[in-house]
Design goal:
Nucleotidyltransferase, domain 5; 2 domains; 8 helices; about 50% helix
Length: about 250
């Protein structure tokens, strides 16, 4: 399983290419359906760890959405990152680009805070109207009073764009990094497949991928594994993280 997930998640190979690599490199006869089953199992086990990890977020968040295809139909992935630590705090998959999924994505990110940061919170987004509307919902729901800073356009024509453009560019680079991995899939075949795949990619990005922020030597969030146990319940997830960490 560790080898399958290394090829499929870390190296971004499709399910079929992963099965082919297993056969031709390691002489292990496995179908792409089994690789998909491994992916689903690992995602189910790892998701609680990824979602509940203590990221200790800063007061600077950036959000953006990008489109994907599920069963040939346009869908969307919402990503919210901490622009200081570069960790992905929230990810959501939706069939529509409206305020509902936006609220779900923001709620997932805000759950990482132990208490409301208040007005010091800088939430940067593009000019999409769903973000200010979602902020109003959190004012009603949690009494969180914060401003959404919207960076509009491609040029710095105003003071807001000049100040916050670098943060917006970080979330856009994150989207491009995700899309580079997504292209190998040629679109997801099922809703669950999309969510499982993105969940594993977030786990890889946050905990396993060497980052420029760490001079490409260490991942964003280092997790010290306990021998034969690990920080994640379940031997499957422990095997996955241990083997991929050893890969580097």
């Amino acid at each position: 399983m560790g080898l399958c997930l290394t090829y499929h998640v870390n190296l971004g190979l499709s399910l079929r290419k992963t099965a082919k690599a297993m056969r031709e490199i390691h002489n292990i006869n496995i179908s792409y359906t089994m690789v998909a089953n491994y992916t689903r199992t690992a995602s189910v086990i790892i998701k609680p760890f990824v979602d509940s990890f203590d990221y200790n977020p800063s007061n600077n968040l950036a959000s953006d959405e990008t489109y994907i295809k599920i069963k040939g139909l346009k869908s969307y992935v919402w990503l919210i990152m901490d622009t200081v630590s570069r960790s992905i705090l929230s990810y959501q998959v939706s069939k529509s680009r409206d305020i509902g999924p936006c609220i779900h994505a923001m709620r997932m990110a805000f759950d990482k805070f132990k208490e409301s940061p208040g007005k010091v919170l800088k939430f940067i987004s593009d000019g999409y109207t769903a973000y200010p509307l979602a902020a109003q919902q959190f004012k009603i729901e949690k009494d969180w009073d914060f401003d959404v800073t919207q960076v509009i356009g491609l040029t710095n024509d105003d003071a807001v764009s000049k100040e916050f453009r670098p943060f917006k560019q970080r979330i856009e680079r994150l989207n491009r990094t995700f899309k580079a991995s997504y292209r190998a899939t040629c679109g997801y075949g099922t809703d669950d497949g999309a969510y499982y795949g993105i969940n594993l990619w977030v786990a890889y990005y946050n905990f396993l991928r060497p980052h420029e922020l760490r001079r490409r030597k260490r991942p964003l969030n280092e997790v010290h594994m306990l021998k034969n146990a690990g920080n994640i319940p379940g031997g499957v997830a422990t095997s996955y993280l241990s083997r991929i960490a050893g890969y580097f």
